[in-house]
Design a protein that fits this description.
Blueprint: H1 2-41, H2 56-116, H3 129-144
Length: 145
C-alpha cells in the first residue's frame, strides 16, 4: 500500500513539475511575442540570428537603422558638447577681457591723477609717494565737501 501511495505521490509531483515547466514555457513564449510586437511597433523586425528564414536584407536594414540612430545620437551629443564648450570659452574670454580693461583703466586713471596732483612744498624730490599722500588727504576732503 505504501509503495503504491508513494508511487502515486511521485507521479503527481512529476505531473505538477511538468505543468509548471509548461506554464513557464508558455509565459516565456508570451513574453517573446510581446517583445516582438513592441519591436515591430518601434519599426524593428525581429529576426533571431541562426534562423534559416531570416532575410539578409532585414539584417542589413536593422544594422543600418541601428547605426544611423546611434550616429545621430553621437552627432547630437557632439553638437551639444561643442556648443557648451564654445559658450564657456566665450564667457571666460569676455570676463578676462573685461577684467583686463577695468584694471588698465584704473591704472591709467590713477597715474593721471597722481601726475596732476602737485607735490607738497616740503618734498623736493619727484617720487610718487608724496603725491599719493597728498591725494589721500585731498580725496576725503573732496568727498565731504
Amino acid at each position: 500500500m505504501k509503495t503504491t501511495t508513494m508511487k502515486k505521490e511521485e507521479e503527481e509531483e512529476e505531473e505538477e513539475e511538468e505543468e509548471e515547466e509548461e506554464e513557464e514555457e508558455e509565459e516565456e513564449e508570451e513574453e517573446e511575442e510581446e517583445e516582438e510586437e513592441e519591436e515591430e511597433e518601434e519599426g524593428f523586425t525581429s529576426c533571431p540570428l541562426g534562423v534559416a528564414s531570416c532575410n539578409s536584407n532585414l539584417i542589413k536594414e536593422f544594422v543600418t537603422n541601428l547605426y544611423h540612430c546611434h550616429h545621430k545620437e553621437h552627432k547630437l551629443t557632439l553638437v551639444v558638447v561643442v556648443i557648451v564648450v564654445v559658450v564657456v570659452v566665450v564667457v571666460v574670454v569676455v570676463v578676462v577681457v573685461v577684467v583686463v580693461v577695468v584694471v588698465v583703466v584704473v591704472v591709467v586713471v590713477v597715474v593721471i591723477v597722481l601726475k596732476m596732483t602737485p607735490l607738497p612744498p616740503h618734498y623736493p624730490c619727484s617720487t610718487t609717494w608724496p603725491r599719493v599722500v597728498v591725494l589721500l588727504n585731498v580725496v576725503p576732503e573732496a568727498i565731504t565737501t
